[in-house]
Amino acid sequence: MDGLTKAAGQPAIARFPVTTIQRQFWFMDQIAPGDPALNIAVRWELRGKLRASSLETAFRGVIDRHEIFRTRFADHEGQLSQEVVEQVPFRLGVVDLRTTPAEHHADRVDQIALEEAAQPFDLSQPGLLRVTLVQLAADRAVVLITAHHIVFDGYSIGVLGQEVGRLAAAAEAGQTDADLAELPLQYGDYALWQKEYLASGVLDEDAAYWTVQLRGAPYFELAPDKQRPPQRTSAVARAGCDIPATLIRRMEAAARAGGVSLFAFGTAAVSAALHRITGAPEVLLSTPIAGRFDTDLEPLIGPFISTHVLRFRFTEDSDFDTHVAATGRLVEQALSHQSLPFSRLVELLNPPRDPSRAPLASIAFSLQHVFHRDHDFGGFELISQPSHTPGSAQDLNIVLIGRPRGWRLSVEYNPDLFEATTAEALVQTLAQAFEAVSADTPAPAPAALPVAPAIAGRRAGATRPFANVEAVLSAHPEVATVAAVPATRDGAGEAAACYAFVSPRPTSLIPLETLPAELMGFAARRLTPAEMPLGVSVLAALPRTASGDLDRALLPRPLPSGSAARPQAATVQPAEGEALETELAAIWADLLDRAEIPRDVSFFDLGGHSLMAVRLIARVRERWRVRLSVATLYDTPTLCGLSARLARDLTPETGTSGAPNRATAAPAAAAAASAEGDDDWQIEPLLTEGAAQPIIGVNDVGLIIDTCGHMRDRHPATCVRLFDGTRGIDRSPRSFEEIAREYAKTIRRAQPEGPYLLFGVCVHGNIALEAARILQSEGADVTGVVIKDVWEPGYAAGLKTQRATRWAERIYALRNKIRMVRMGLLSVSAMLGSYRIIRRTGVLQLAHRMGLIERVRASDLAPEQERFVSYISAARNVYRPEPLDLPVLHVVTKITAQGKRFLPSIGWEHVVAPGQLKTVKIDQIFVQGRWRLGTKELAQEIDSWLGARG
């Protein structure tokens, strides 16, 4: 077992926020430290001759190239970040099996692979990658790779394979350069972008979609063979079969005939088969999405994957063709709303927290080609091989994967829940379903699909009624056996009303007469009110059949037929130590921003979520110096429960008093300035001296002043504005033309007669152009308009239908924004400043899907200003300018997308009359704080343009 050696004590050279998927993986690691389900195991066959030293050099090169492999994770008072260190030494593990008989190679490799994949990682240390070379012969070996999911995903396997192969080939040839293209970004850059992207409000539409789509959905699961443990385990086993290439071709043909993708067709077949097995009217499947939506993310290593849940509805008369069409639409909608992180979806839906189950969906399905393509690198080949999954996050994971040698259907299952025969029957049923729905004959209805006898009639949901009640009570340390039965003999009365019988452990010391009340309180902290048993009875032993199984029929029903009525949820007795509970309540109130905290309501029902849970536990640890885990909060999520648990854990030495350290809220902002007696605030004189053409800027001050300082002649300059703090133009609905007409009136007040020379940046440039057109239509003399980085609204809106161009524009802006952040031109809080500029240019509909929207906040704009810009941007978004027959100088900088996909003047070529538009490029123009970039070049271009026009 080898890989990256620890780099403890190294200073961080860069610190970034974590992405949503990294936060999810980190939180899962906090719940179950070292869970192998969070590891990714990869296996390559190495054919040909390659020295171990060359392979080690190749991996070192990849580690140097990708910051994510030199990253550690740190939690500072609940604020999680990823820190990059300069260097992490790497050592390749080598196991030599050349002297081992060849017939034992496969078993030994499997054993080594299992051991490697199960080894945990320490997320606080950089080095979340291990590699072992198992040498089988002089020209044959196996490369075993284990990486933590927090730094790696399935797509990364292909990136890693190509780079390792090329770097190893270069090392074998004695070369130091493998001619790998420079990475445009690092994963930390993407994390910075995602943070601002999520804060922009872009998720509102996606959140609304998924909330409507999944609200009220039942929890779908295949009934397990074994009683579900109180805590979900990550044990995994696998069953599978090969899928003939002819069948895949028929499925592809059927998918084309139905107008859907192969993935949508396969998803339709799997969901229909599960409906056939269970008879459930609704089936839910989770599915992974790669999340690499643009080319600049493709060469990166790191976790971009996201998970989404698909909901399928069936009726008695559902036919498969209709189901395929509905699935196609469902998949298409899911892809168009894929921005919402899974953790946010869980927070929105706020399902009951059940530590024994995966949230929202228990079964996953994926259909994909293998990530690493077999490749010949000259003296050796790297060939993808099936690898062992270290652990499973779901009950069942159905995978249909294509390799160059053929396709294979696999079902990864949790052996703590299912027998191997059940998994094998599921594989058989799915394979039969693929055959049935892609045959030349009409596809059978979902309810009529073939099903393996061993799994036929397996109902959805729990193995038996009230299994969750049994699982919870079984977790109590004083309980040996549990059986929950309907509360009435005939099952009448309120649905799901049950009564529980328990037998105590032989070692139990608790008085039996107190055990029922103890168990009711224990259950109340773990079950929803609807799940609570009506009562608990203690029997010395529960009745059993001759075969040893529980005989539930012999258990008495405590209530007469039809009389079951559910009481209110059991009231948990007050925890000892009222002072402790009061202090804990104060921490809850601070985190949840609530004035009062009910004692017996779940933390998560009060608005808490996973990251907030981490912060709560961190506060508790800091205050009371106890080693409390996040899992404890899931186990006892109520205030009274957690305080009771805390009281038990405290010793006299640690149980000190004192209020927690609370931050004091900042005072409220000062009141807005009064506009009384200030009639000319809309006109701001900037430069009053000079005889040259006056310049009027729309909502611009700093850039005009600095540019005029570099111009050949002295130009008076004025800024006109309709908004200042809380005064000025209201935001009642009006057209962009009406807004621009108000600016034109203000311009005439500032300068009663022409000629007019107007200036505007981004959306303010749109206003300057429309105001100039209005002035010209009224007979005024217009010298021209200077604009910078202004999109023509109709052209920008048209890009929405061009996927390749849309993403090209998006990644162009992303790359530029990161460059500005690293140059120090933008703070992290304003890292989407370039997107804000694009936002102001009328590409809002396009930008809303891509993160380039008007709601992105920047550090140089106060909230009221942001709202004003959003208001005029929204109006401009639906505005289409009339033809302009006046001189226009358009200065385009690197913050605006450029290249073969885009018009040089981003659409104004079609609006401004021929011969009237001049477009020039300047790398960057930036005036803010101490920065003065590009204004000299801008002044020269304006002078040249004015001079040429006489």
From TrEMBL:
Its cofactor is pantetheine 4'-phosphate. GO terms for cellular component: cytosol. It comes from the Bacteria. One of its GO terms (molecular function) is catalytic activity. Keywords: Phosphopantetheine, Phosphoprotein. Pfam families: AMP-binding_C, Condensation, PP-binding, Thioesterase. It comes from Allgaiera indica. This is AMP-binding enzyme C-terminal domain-containing protein. The keyword Phosphoprotein applies. Gene3D superfamilies: 3.30.300.30, ACP-like, alpha/beta hydrolase, Chloramphenicol acetyltransferase-like domain, Nonribosomal peptide synthetase, condensation domain. Residues 575-650 form the Carrier domain. Transmembrane segments: none annotated. One of its GO terms (biological process) is secondary metabolite biosynthetic process.
